[in-house]
């Protein structure tokens, strides 16, 4: 109690000053300019200076600020950020003495809540002897300062009775100083809370050591508040050891952390666990199964053609469908069943696997639940689901591989036609492993310079001259392996890499055309295939025009090939983009014509110059009357529309003659040449020119 320390008539401010002066610690206050407003006896002794020499002075007068940089850095951080700092600092005096301190620095606020000064409390840890601190104050200003520090500051005697509590502490308890001083936490707080605080206080006093940790206090409003508290033993003359405490509220910080943790493991759209939490819960299920000798199944469900829904109905409709699908699965599964949304339009379900037949029936039941009509924008819409299934311990012995295997089975179900269930198998595992390896290598293939272009010539029917080339992408995965375009191009499209790769192809083709021109070969037209993602990219027009302009490619020399199916997906958008390209001198052709579901109404509006007749019609043109008639019809239609026709896959002389008889304009295929590396093209062109000249001489031309 205060009466135990000083005469009854001692002023409260004097009592506080005396208490602070007895703290075996270093207490100081600096303004925004780094000038001392106050320094206690320990600080004065450390600097060997009087209060008059310290107040108004800056640190440079007492210490080597270059070698004590952390002291100034922490001061600035508190002043600028307005937050408490707990740190270790090293101070180097001008006489060479070095001292280590454990320091707490707190912002001091004015009535408007602005930071006006920093208050520091340091304990000497030069020998790692965590000693208690002594606070000293000689004037009325310190009481005002402590009341405006954004922390709860309090002094208790050995019985836990308050000797001092700053304004912030009084507000927490909703009491005046007279109602707090002389009373203990047991008098002010619920019993359970008071007991926890008293236990910490006894620990500090018993060990005579600093304590830092989290505490929970119930305020006058009945709400629990969390604090980070630092408590130091306080030696009181003639009295048993008490404590001085500094507590900073961290309630909002903890709530923020909890929110971030929920967001980290939860899908925001559906409220289901995300992939991270799925892996954690799946790992737990596998440990339980291992303990009990059981089996666990992981089912991956994917909404078929979900991208189509997003494209035609908008993202909000897609989100609505996903939320409803999640709700259907919740209602269809037991409450304790693990259901998650790993990402995109995928859902994952962990099921017991004691009866394989019952498991398959359950998966089909879930697919049927997802296949019920959805109401999107006021209209019913059916969406089927593809499913992949993998089991523990048969297919994998840990969560990560089991998830990969179930996804591989799901992807197989989608590749084989969608709306079906596929189980994982060893063969599928090998394919999945290769796919993962290809995905990994494909991401770095462009940067590693593993792509190159080969060029297959197009031959004019009328005179067998070379009319140009088609650039074909090749991936040299290693010195020993060249991956087929049929394998890596669809994969790159799925991975979202073809826009970047496609830009490289256009740029490389233009670079090569410029090099051939510089070699005296003239303008060599080159056709480049576009991917669906490129055709939908906002950067397509700019990137193509930049490459053409940079390399001086003449109008008509660069040709872009698109398939009819990718144009028909968004016909109006495709027409607009193709018209812009055509207006900039780029030739356009429809590749694989006749294999999709083209609309003749759209075909006549497309600004294309050429149709490429797919090889499926060319293969049997010399032996199958129907194929021959189809080719003749397509060629006649193209000519009516003012288009040229290129026949792909011409491999025999009989095919060439049959196509020529039906007025096909250009041929492309192994009958004339396989795709050539760029370095072989000049020699090929020279040979073809020589053969053509010889043939003309032979005909007397």
Task: Kindly describe this structure.
Strand 16, helix 15 (399-415) and strand 17 (421-423) form a beta-alpha-beta unit. Helix 12 (306-313) crosses helix 13 (315-332) and helix 18 runs parallel beside helix 20 (540-551). Residues 1-10 and 129-140 have low confidence and may be disordered. It is elongated and about 125 Å long. The N and C termini lie far apart (125 Å). With 701 residues, the protein is α+β, with helices and mostly antiparallel strands. The strands form five sheets. Strands 18-19-21-22-23-24-25-26 form an eight-stranded mixed barrel, surrounded by four helices. Helices cover 44% and strands 24% of the residues.
Question: Which features would summarize this protein structure in a list?
Answer:
27 helices; single chain; 701 residues; 27 strands; 44% helix; 24% strand; alpha+beta; elongated; eight-stranded mixed β-barrel; disordered N terminus
Q: How is this fold's topology laid out?
A:
Blueprint: H1 12-21, E1 26-31, E2 36-39, H2 41-47, H3 51-54, H4 69-81, E3 85-92, E4 98-109, E5 115-124, H5 140-148, E6 152-156, E7 162-165, H6 167-173, H7 177-180, H8 185-188, H9 191-207, E8 211-218, E9 224-234, E10 242-249, H10 251-265, H11 275-292, E11 296-303, H12 306-313, H13 315-332, E12 338-343, E13 346-352, H14 356-371, E14 374-376, E15 379-381, E16 385-392, H15 399-415, E17 421-423, H16 426-445, E18 451-460, E19 466-476, E20 482-483, H17 485-494, H18 498-521, E21 526-529, H19 532-535, H20 540-551, E22 558-563, H21 564-569, H22 571-583, E23 587-593, H23 600-603, E24 610-613, H24 615-618, H25 625-640, E25 644-647, H26 653-661, E26 666-667, E27 676-677, H27 681-698
Parallel strand pairs: 16-17, 19-21, 21-22, 22-23, 23-24, 24-25, 25-26
Antiparallel strand pairs: 1-2, 1-5, 3-4, 4-5, 6-7, 6-10, 8-9, 9-10, 11-13, 11-16, 12-13, 14-15, 18-19, 18-26, 18-27, 19-20
